[in-house]
Amino acid sequence: MTTTYPAPGVYTPSATIFKTDGPKGRPAVDIEAQVKHTIFLADNGVTGVVLLGSTGEMVHMTKKERFDFVAGVKKGLEAKGYGDYPILAGVAHHGIDDTLEEIKSMKQAGAKWAMVLAPNYFASATTQQGLINWFTAVADESELPVVIYYFPGVSNNLKMTPDTFEVLAQHPKICGAKLSHGNVTDYAQIALNPKVQSADFTTMTGLGQLLLPAMAAGCHGTIDACSGIFPKLLVKLWTLSRDGKIQEAQKLQYVVSRVEEIVAAFGPMGVKHLMDKVLGYSSDLGRAPLNVALSDAQKETYSQAIADAVKLENSL
């Protein structure tokens, strides 16, 4: 397999859109709406999409649902002339065999890359060499190129050091990383490491609220949830950051950072509220336990930040 690398840019880790029907706590997936939303992202400059990441509630869906979901979105995109639009599939398992089986399924469904969450059940006992061993074993047999997904907030506060990324970047089938934390020092030590750069390794921040400083620290872009609601805003911020237009980028970064607070506070539920309020999707609920809508008071806290982002998005 010839490894391809995710192009620099803005990627959206999409929230899975559910219908309002289905078993209690387990609403049905709305593939038609997901295709429509993915086309919206493509038409507004988003480089690619992540399906079944943390925001996409991969852990709340069965294996069959995950396959049918990605395959359904891929088929829907092909029918609308978007068959080449890049799809990364989220993979989150602790065992090597389960991970490899999921990657195989995602390839068959139409994904181009597997975004693999670091194993974290035994986080306190896991060494850096153990992580190297695990990711190497996965990559050796993976049927898709692997993007390392490092998110301490959903990984039992697992630690992965820049030195570990340096080693893993040398693997021919490990082609990038999503770093979902706020340590810009780590960004720089990974993205600016000459050994990582020579490996054509794509380093992405998972936090759009840090896109400008992340780009200054060598990152190639972002995999950011707010880009699913404000794609033009995030793409413009990325472009200005890439081109070194710092003062212009700062103005956009301020607006982005403020609206990102709702995602930082409420995760997928914050994203779903934004999709409902800004894009008009009818359901702002996930699957249980993420099926409790934000209160009116919680929504009001972020209303001005949302309004400012909407105004800027509409001006671009």
Automatic annotation (TrEMBL):
It comes from the Eukaryota. InterPro entries: Aldolase_TIM, DapA-like. PANTHER family: DIHYDRODIPICOLINATE SYNTHASE, DIHYDRODIPICOLINATE SYNTHETASE. This is Dihydrodipicolinate synthase. Keywords: Lyase. One of its GO terms (molecular function) is 4-hydroxy-tetrahydrodipicolinate synthase activity. Coiled coil: none annotated. Pyruvate binds at residues 55, 223. CDD domains: DHDPS-like (cd00408). SUPFAM superfamilies: Aldolase. Belongs to the DapA family. It holds the Pfam family DHDPS. It comes from Trichomonascus ciferrii. The active site is at 149 (proton donor/acceptor), 178 (schiff-base intermediate with substrate).
